[in-house]
Amino acid sequence: MVTSSRKVATLEDDRIDELKAFDDTKAGVKGLVDSKIVKIPRIFIHEKSKINQFPVSCNSRLSVPIIDFAGIDEDETRRSEIINKIRDACERWGFFQIINHGIPTSVMDEMMDAVSRFHEQDTEVKKQYYSRDFSKKFIYNSNFDLYQGPAAYWRDGFECILAPHPPEPEELPVVCRGIMAKYANYVMSLGITLFELLSQALGLKPHHLNEMNCSEGLLLLGNYYPACPEPELTAGLSSHTDSGFLTILQQDQIGGLQVLHENQWIDAPSLPGVLIVNIADLLQLITNDKFKSVHHRVLAKKTGPRISVACFFRTHFQDGTSSRPYGPIKELLSDENPPIYKEITIKEFIVQRYKNGLNGISALSSFKLHNHAPEN
């Protein structure tokens, strides 16, 4: 008679074999869809209790704040209004949307087209970039945490390290080579502005966060979410928080992004020309929980593909600055507001993130000081 522990071990072995077989195709989720499957493989099936842990909001008045950046450099009163709105959004939502942000619509559209072109080219061409070596400047794969996460999600993606040490042009695929540097320049400039505004929202001097190198590193993800035959059984991206200081996202008209706010999922629909900005874990750590890194997810959908471009402000494994220690900013601490987190390096934080994958638990909980209870 097989014991229950042996059954569990056998099931886990089977699951790992299935994950490896999927990984070895190097064709990603798009490869499954191209093969005309009507049932999703069990490695993609999520526990219903996890998917339905929080209800989806029916309150149409609840929406991610939209902040207009028009006139930000022309009028001190206008700038103060924007800073106040950013402060409120970062404390209450961890997310906000921005318009009149300075990135031309044509550049945004060209970047989205490049992501689509990459993922829709012949699989044999894409395979040369398929890798799980995250020290490379450009890689493509499906599920960065394929072997660590509790279930795979319905998404392929490429990631590219764009700063502080960008790749040589020949290291990038031809189909997206021309736009990557141009897009990165616009996003880096916007990031510097955002960190100035965030510094002021914290009551610090405008250059404080930039001088801490928060805007130095940039990692771009080109996400591709194919149409799913059974979207209710899986997720485009499971509930998670982001691992850097700040994320700037653009998504296409299909939408699917949801933000956890007051224990309910709020839709963040796509709006023309809008960028979504969210606080990430390292900014929550250095602001000592004043600004919140909030859980969010992407739904799998019958329609697709959904395209998005996510830019993460943080350095990566091999960059020298990844060894710099970061802890709660001393100017924000007091007897009434003692440090919640210990000092860590970006490298320590990223290693922890890649080790655990998107398991629904904030990576910050591992770095809390002993006098603070860990998060759930």
TrEMBL record:
Residues 214-317 form the Fe2OG dioxygenase domain. The keyword 4Fe-4S does not apply. This is 1-aminocyclopropane-1-carboxylate oxidase-like protein 1. InterPro entries: DIOX_N, IPNS-like_FE2OG_OXY, IPNS-like_sf, Oxoglu/Fe-dep_dioxygenase_dom. The keyword Membrane does not apply. GO terms for biological process: coumarin biosynthetic process; response to molecule of fungal origin. Keywords: Iron, Metal-binding, Oxidoreductase, Vitamin C. Belongs to the iron/ascorbate-dependent oxidoreductase family. Pfam families: 2OG-FeII_Oxy (PF03171), DIOX_N (PF14226). One of its GO terms (molecular function) is 2-oxoglutarate-dependent dioxygenase activity. It comes from the Eukaryota.
